[in-house]
Design brief:
about 140 residues, alpha/beta, six-stranded mixed beta sheet, about 40% helix, disordered N terminus
Length: about 140
């Protein structure tokens, strides 16, 4: 598995390429208004660069605000409607983690369904299984 950083686009999200998949992480372990704006911007940037697979890694997140939940839902909706990007999501492994509970309470876990994966490696395998013609591979 290769990993080469494309660098944080806004300073709020770390984006690395792993096996042709963009992996987005929040170094501060929080996902609130500033990070939500960064996610939306970086997501559009991925689309412009014709990167068709991404993983939103919230596995180490300790806090997600309503803005973060909204930005995640918005990106997910764009993926489902436009089919331009395949997206998977990783939540904290601890079933009692606040972030995981928030996704469950608002129903986002159910909406995301099988694209909700336990690890980044599983999420990468999930999005690669769709076989899109990704020019970065």
């Amino acid at each position: 598995m290769s990993s080469n950083s494309t660098g944080p686009h806004t300073g709020d999200i770390e984006i690395t390429m792993q096996d042709g998949v963009a992996v987005l992480r929040f170094p501060s372990h929080i996902f609130q208004k500033k990070e939500s704006a960064a996610l939306t911007s970086d997501f559009l940037d991925l689309q412009e660069k014709a990167i068709t697979r991404c993983v939103l890694d919230l596995g180490l997140c300790e806090y997600v605000s309503s803005d973060g939940l909204g930005a995640t839902a918005q990106c997910w909706k764009k993926c489902k409607e436009g089919k331009a990007i395949q997206m998977a999501l990783v939540l904290p492994a601890d079933p009692s983690a606040e972030v995981r509970n928030l996704f469950d309470i608002i129903g986002l876990s159910g909406a995301i369904g099988s694209a909700l994966q336990p690890t980044v490696a599983d999420a990468i395998a999930y999005v690669k299984a769709f076989g899109s013609n990704n020019p970065i591979e």
